[in-house]
Amino acid sequence: MIQIDGVSHRIGGAPILHDISTRLPQGKLTALIGPNGAGKSTLLRLVGRLEPLQAGRITVAGHDVATTPTDRLARVMAILGQQTAIASRLRLSELVAFGRWPHHKGRPGSVDRAKVTEALDAFALTPLAGRFLDEVSGGQAQRAHIAMAVAQDTDWLLLDEPLNNLDMAHARALMRRLRAMVDGGRSVGMVVHEINYAAAWADHVIAMKNGRVVAQGPAGSVLTEDLLSDLYDTPIQIGEHRGRPLVLHHC
Amino acid sequence: MDSGFAGAGLDPRPRLSRDAAMLGGMALLLAAVAALWMFQGLGQGNRSFLLGLRGAKLAALVTVAVAGGVSTILFQTVAANRVLTPSIMGFDALYVLLQSGLVVALGGAGFVGLPPAAKFTAEVAAMTALAALLFGTLLLKGARDLPKMILTGVILGVLFRSVSGFLGRVLDPNEFAVVQSVSFASFNRVDVTLLPWAVAATALAVAAAWRMSAILDVLALGRDPAVSLGLRHRAAVLAVLTLVAVLVSVSTALVGPVAFFGLILAGLAHGLMRTSRHALLLPAAGLSGAILLVGGQWLFERLLSQAATLSVVVEFAGGLFFLFLLLKGRIR
Ligand SMILES: Nc1ncnc2c1ncn2[C@@H]1O[C@H](COP(=O)(O)OP(=O)(O)OP(=O)(O)O)[C@@H](O)[C@H]1O
Ligand SMILES: [Mg+2]
Question: Do residue A159 and residue A228 come from a single domain?
């Protein structure tokens, strides 16, 4: 479980998060939803210790992110931020291989190589493995970044808008993969904008707005017409498809 | 050490051996150039004296080259871009300022009279502390804005140089001459008394950098990925900046400040190696630097009898390369 207690955050004096307390349940796929600027990325970055915690307490599977050694945390959770620009010139295979660093610290063994091969394969990157990051499309690069986080092989996987740049087929393949990981006992937390992916795949939903959590619970109880209309300040209708809510917002 | 390779259907070996062969070739070339430097035009009389003289200069040139190449690669890795160098950020200007400050505090005679080893050690220590403090703050305090970084560096450099200049002005002419002699690059005038210390310090720093090469690979990904992979980012950045400060101090103490030399070496290393692995990049930068400097000095000193010109040519070429990088937008 990821437990978030009384977390507030300011950037340059401006309050961004207001006294947030919530949790991401163990063994579930949790979707973080909300309008632009709600504070989803900030909260996820705090959980992933990419930003130092200013107030409150966050534990990931019992590890306090403020006090647990960072290399220990790297074997408990993998986090992929919203901005994925990489400074060095790397082949896709090299990028994905970095996901194994927390385990081998520079001396990869056969297990590490196998995990990298598996991750490349899972995201249909094997044919592109030898290409440089700046020689592939945006979606292919995004898949390589996700594959790197998956290769890290942690109990917790945190992804900020992983569906960015992915076409329909790859978006669905990713959700299927995450679903399978969760069914295998892992836990996933992800920021999602395309609400129907949350509706179709998430177990648990946390809705944020203006730096606060406005609703949380099982997907069915959060994804309602009233709540979503309020959340996004826009009228939203919900139908049903194969027993899951289908959000109609394109018209 | 093999962190970069996946072994996923594609065999890493051909690439590795290509880069390794390149390094081997460069080492051979360096050996050839060094032999040329040592033995070409060696007359009959006084051979051992001449060999000693040439040997000392060879050691100095190689030390400066390796320090310049390795420090630039290290700095570019922590700054996450290919345009900045320690010199552009004012590292060597800071060292010159430190020396000018010493001249003022002790007087020209006192400065010259200091035991070189003690002076050198103290300078390197002070430089390391100052640089880690200053550039550590700059790099860690969210300076992800590259134009702002370059500007800050240029301003710092100008500031350090003008303070040195001001100190020079308030001195009497003799002391000013001492300051002047330390503020301009010359591969021709090498301070031989420092040589053993400089070689030792460089060897230690380069060995430390080499041992860190797997960590440097992670650091080069940028802060967020490095942190999520569990690297203690802050500590790693400070460690790297310390090594940079030692290397720049050594090189500046030996031949004075060289602004753009390191930029050429980093460019060459990245161009010659088909990989971002520091285990290969670091030796590539050091070797190409040594080949350039020893070969260049041989050409200018022995063939063209223009010993003083090499630094000008190197700076000119480096400056052009800097402009090229900026114009090409290869700013990351
Ligand atoms: N570096 C920064 N300086 C100032 N304000 C910032 C900074 N980063 C984020 N903010 C502000 O913090 C708030 C929350 O940002 P955050 O990135 O967490 O939003 P988000 O919910 O992830 O939005 P999006 O859906 O657009 O990604 C926003 O109002 C944003 O303007
Ligand atoms: Mg965001």
Answer: yes
Kindly determine whether residue B230 and residue A72, on different chains, have CB atoms separated by under 8 Å: yes
Specify whether A12 is located in the same domain as A59: yes
Whether A29 is in a domain gets the answer: yes
User: Does A43 reside within a domain?
Assistant: yes
The span from the CA of A124 to the CA of A147, in Å, is 10
Query: What is the pairing mode between strands A212-218 and A29-33?
Result: unpaired
Based on the fold, state whether residues A66 and A1 are members of the same structural domain. Answer: yes
- Architecture per CATH, domain B67-327, reads as Orthogonal Bundle (1.10)
Q: How many CB atoms lie within 10 A of CB B52?
A: 11
Tokens of B258: 């060289």
Residues A63, A105 within the same domain: no
Question: If interface means Cβ-Cβ distance under 8 Å, which residues of chain B face chain A?
Answer: 1-10, 80-81, 214-215, 217-218, 220-222, 224-225, 227-232, 270, 275-276, 332
For residue A204, tell me if it sits in a domain: yes
What separation in angstroms does the CA of B199 have from each of A115, A180, B60, B65, B187?
43, 57, 8, 11, 16
**Binary contact (B2, A102; C-beta < 8 A):** no
| CA–CA distance, B294 with A8 (Å, rounded to integer) | 59
Residues in chain B closer than 8 A to A67 (CB atoms): none
* A118, A130: one domain: yes
Please count the other Cβ atoms lying within 10 Å of the Cβ belonging to residue A184: 8
For CA atoms B323, B329, B330, B332, the dihedral sign is positive
Interface of A with B (CB under 8 A): 48-50, 70-75, 78-81, 83, 85-91, 93-94, 96-102, 104-108, 113, 116-117, 120-121, 126, 129-130, 149, 152
Containing structural domain, residue A116: 83-153
Q: Are residues A44 and A91 in the same domain?
A: no
Domains held by chain A: number: 2
Reference A189, options A76, A61, A66, A28; nearest CA is A28
- How far apart, in whole angstroms, are the C-alpha atoms of residue A152 and residue A79? 10
What pTM, to 2 d.p., does this model score?
0.86
d(CA B98, CA B95): 5
Q: Do residues A5 and A70 both lie within one domain?
A: yes
Q: What angle do CA A46, B223, A93 make, to 5 degrees?
A: 110
Q: Comparing C-alpha atoms, which of A31, A28, A23, A22 is closest to residue A199?
A: A31
Domain spans in chain B, listed from the N-terminal domain onward = 67-327
- A128 CA from centroid of ligand 2 (Å): 28
Same domain, A87 and A139: yes
State the complex-level ipTM.
0.92
Establish if A48 belongs to a structural domain.
Answer: yes
Would you give per-residue pLDDT tens digits along chain B (332 residues)? 333 444 333 444 455 678 888 899 999 999 998 888 888 877 777 878 888 888 888 898 899 899 999 999 998 898 877 777 888 777 778 877 887 777 777 766 676 677 777 777 887 888 888 877 777 777 666 555 656 766 777 788 888 878 877 777 776 666 666 666 655 556 666 667 778 888 999 999 999 999 999 999 999 998 899 999 999 988 898 899 889 888 988 888 777 777 678 888 888 888 888 788 899 999 999 999 999 888 888 887 777 776 666 666 677 677 677 667 666 655 44
